[in-house]
C-alpha cells in the first residue's frame, strides 16, 4: 500500500521527467539520453527488440531519426524538433541612431560645406585660400594638416566646417552609404570657362542629396572673366541666381588672389541661418567618418564630423565593426581638444581597428556594450555572407540539379536525410576497423571528413557532395561530419581512412595542425563554400591518372627499301623523305600503310647519308631501321610522335 511519502516521491518523479524531448535529425545515444534526462541504459533498454545491433551501441554511437523517435515514443514522451542552430535565434544587439530629439533641446550648429565643380575651376585653390585665411587670422599660424575637414571662423564668431576633399566622388560615395554629411554645396565655376560637364553633374548631385547651392564664380581676376555669362548659363539648369529673381547666392571671387572670400563665407553663414541648422549639443554622440588612416604613432585614426551630442575624451564609440575609447581629440592644427560639439570636424584616436570613411559613429554607454555591438555586427555580416553564398550556390546548382535528377530518374534516388543515415550505416563497418589495421591507401578513393560552424553550412556542403556523380573515376565517401573546430578525433579518423579534412568557417588549433601534418592528413580550411568545393574538385582530379595524348612531331614517306648487313644479320632499312616537321630518334614512331597501322615502337637507327643523327628535318632524306620485324614498302608513311600526359579533371560538376 503506498505511503504518503511514496506518493510524494512519485509526484516529484513526474516533475523531473521531461515530457517533451528536443530532438535533432541525428543524435548520439548519450545526447539523446541527456535530452530525455535519462541515462545511457534507458536508451539501450528502449531499443531492445528492434533490428538495431545492440552490441555495437556505445554512448557516442549515432542514432538515426527513426530510432530517436522510437526511443522517445517507447519512453512515453513526445518529441519536438530542436531549432537548427541556436545562433539563428541570437537577439539583435546592434545600436542605431536615436529618434529625433525634442526641438526644445536643439541648438544652432555651424554648416558643413562641400566644394564641388568642374575640373580646374579652382576647388583646391579655393580650399587652400580659405584655410590660409584662418592661419593668418589665428596667431598660431602653425602647420595645418590634412584631416579631411577644417574650420573657418568669421571675425563675427560664426563658424563653417569645410570638407576638404574636393570633387563629387567623395560626396557621392558618402551618399551611396546613406551618409550625408553636407549641409551646403559651394559650386565653383570659373568665370573664364563657364558651365561645364562636371558643373552640371555637381548640380545634380546636390539636387539628389537635397542640399542647397551657393555659386562661387571663380577666377574673376582674369581679364577674360565673364561672371554674368556664368550666371546666365546656370539658368538652363534651374540654378537661378538672386539677380535673376531666384534664391541662389552667387559670389564673385578669386581663389588665387583671395579676393572676396569673406563675402563667400558670409553668404554661407546667411544660408545656414535660413536653413536653421540645429542639433542636440549634449548627450550621446552621433557622427560620420569622413576620413580614416593608420598613423604610425597613433594607430587607427579617423576624422569625424559630430552630428549630434558632445564628443569627449573617454567617450566610447562604435563605427561599422570597430569601436574606440577616445584617447585624443585633435583639430586640424594638431591641437588637443577636450570636447567637440555638432558640426565640428575632429581627429579621433583610440580605435581598436580602422573603420571606413562614410561609416556612422554612434556613442554607447560602455566598452562592454561596444564589444557587444561589434560582435553582433561581425556575426550578422558573416550570416549575410553565408546566406548570399548559399543563394548563389543554390541558384547555380538549381539547373545542374535538375539535369542530374533527370539523368537519375528511374533510379532509386535517396533523399538527403536517407543518404545521411545510409552513410552512417555504410561507415559502421569501417569504424570497427582497428586503427592498427589501417586501410590501404587507395588512389581512387577519397574519404572525407567535413566540419562546419553550424548545421546549415554542413548541410549545404553535404547537399553539394550529394550531387557527386563521378564515383567510377574516384570513390568519394563522407566518413564523418560535424559541427565545430577540427579536433584530434577528426585527424585520427582521417588518418585511419587516409582521408582529407575539409572545414568551413571553423578553425584548427596549432597542435591539431601539427598533428595533421605529422599524420599526413590534408587539412583544408575555407570560409567560402565554393572555394572549398573548388579545392575538393582539385583533390579529386589529382587522384585520377593523367590522360595520355599524342603530339605528332613529323611525318616521312618511304621512298625505297634495302637491306644493310650488320655483322652477319641483314637489317631492313627504309629510305625516307621527311614531309612534315622532323623525325626525332628518341621519340615514338608508327608505320602506316593506307589506313592500317602496321607497327608502333622505337627506331633502332636513324642515319643521314652515312652519319648517325638524332634529328632529321623536313625536306631531308634519311635511312631508318626499327626495333622489330617490319617489311617497309615504298609509299608507307612513318609518323614520329611524342606522348603527352595531361592531368585529368574530375567529371563531377557541382553546378558552379
Ligand atoms: N587666375 C586664377 N587662376 C586660378 C584661380 N583659381 C584657381 N586658379 C588656377 O586654376 C588651376 C586649377 O586650379 P585648381 O584649384 O587645381 O582646380 P581644381 O578645380 O581643384 O582642379 P581639379 O582638382 O583638377 O579638379 C590652377 O592653375 C590654379 O592656379 C583664380 O581665382 N584665378
Automatic annotation (TrEMBL):
Q: Could you tell me which InterPro entries the record lists for this protein?
A: EF-G-like_DII, IF2_II, P-loop_NTPase, Small_GTP-bd, T_Tr_GTP-bd_dom, TF_IF2_bacterial-like, TIF_IF2, TIF_IF2_dom3
| Region (Disordered) location | 84-103
This protein's UniProt keywords: GTP-binding, Initiation factor, Mitochondrion, Nucleotide-binding, Protein biosynthesis, Transit peptide
Question: Main localisation, per the record?
Answer: mitochondrion
> Which segments constitute the Tr-type G domain?
108-276
Is Transcription one of the keywords UniProt gives this record?
A: no
Query: What's in the GO CC field?
Result: mitochondrion
Compartments, as annotated in UniProt: Mitochondrion
The Swiss-Prot or TrEMBL record annotates one GO molecular function as:
GTPase activity
Q: Which domain of life is it from?
A: Eukaryota
Extent of Basic and acidic residues compositional bias: 85-100
Q: Which Pfam families match?
A: EF-G_D2, GTP_EFTU, IF-2
Q: Report if keyword Protein biosynthesis is assigned.
A: yes
Q: Record's family?
A: Belongs to the TRAFAC class translation factor GTPase superfamily. Classic translation factor GTPase family. IF-2 subfamily.
Q: Which NCBIfam families match?
A: small_GTP
Q: What is the purpose of this protein?
A: One of the essential components for the initiation of protein synthesis. Protects formylmethionyl-tRNA from spontaneous hydrolysis and promotes its binding to the 30S ribosomal subunits. Also involved in the hydrolysis of GTP during the formation of the 70S ribosomal complex.
What this protein is called in its record is: Translation initiation factor IF-2, mitochondrial
Q: What gene, per UniProt, encodes this protein? A: MTIF2
